[in-house]
Automatic annotation (TrEMBL):
Pfam families: Fer4_6. This is ATP-binding protein. Signal peptide: none annotated. Keywords: ATP-binding, Nucleotide-binding. It comes from the Bacteria. GO terms for molecular function: ATP binding. Residues 4-33, 35-63 form the 4Fe-4S ferredoxin-type domain.
Length: 196
């Protein structure tokens, strides 16, 4: 299909990353210190990134490319709110579990594609909910479901540390250590830390 799409001149690009933040579709990434399109299907061709590039390395061209897919839901189960999830729900068995502070999905534009895809999702807010309840529920889930992994996505704000502590304490309480990943999102919507 021939359509309008972003074109990045890697020779002109100085790797400042302003285009990455400007792209509402999350279609641009930095690789080897230079901007590049992640894939044709992620670019809507509107060019929100153009005015942000100080080097004039980005323009819109018309060429053969894959169709734009936009933001597609990757959610595989319902409900997602931690208080509503039954710890013995069949979809939790052998799951790759994503535990996310609820603000993260609003702050990080590609949350579905980068985090939800292939995961069972539980969301909550440690500032608004009872953290002891979280520990009890997470402990029950970990003990009874033979989880493959746990990924925690939290905001950079201090109150989000509660969800991390609840998950770690729950692993200790259950006596089961599950492969663990923690991702921290900035209030600007960027990944600022990703640790296993």
């Amino acid at each position: 299909m021939k359509r309008k799409i972003v074109n990045i001149d890697r020779e002109k690009c100085d790797g400042c990353g302003l285009c990455v933040n400007a792209c509402h579709e999350g279609a641009i990434e930095l690789v080897g210190g230079k901007a590049r399109l992640k894939g044709d299907e992620y670019c809507d061709g509107l060019g929100d990134c153009l005015p942000e590039c100080p080097r004039g390395a980005i323009d819109i061209i018309e060429r053969e490319s894959r169709n734009y897919k936009g933001n597609v839901s990757e959610l595989g189960q319902w409900p997602v709110q931690l208080k509503l999830v039954n710890p013995r729900a069949p979809y939790l068995k052998n799951a790759e579990l994503l535990i996310a502070a609820d603000c993260t999905s609003y702050a990080y534009g590609n949350f579905h594609r980068d985090f939800i895809k292939g995961h069972i999702v539980l969301i909550g807010c440690p500032k608004l909910d009872d953290i002891d309840y979280y520990e009890e529920k997470f402990t029950d889930i970990i003990k009874n479901n033979n989880l493959k992994s746990i990924t925690v996505v939290r905001m950079e704000v201090p109150c989000c540390g509660g969800i991390v502590n609840a998950v770690k304490n729950s692993m200790l309480n259950s006596g089961m250590m599950v492969p663990y990943r923690e991702v921290v999102i900035s209030i600007e919507g960027n990944i600022i830390e990703d640790k296993n």
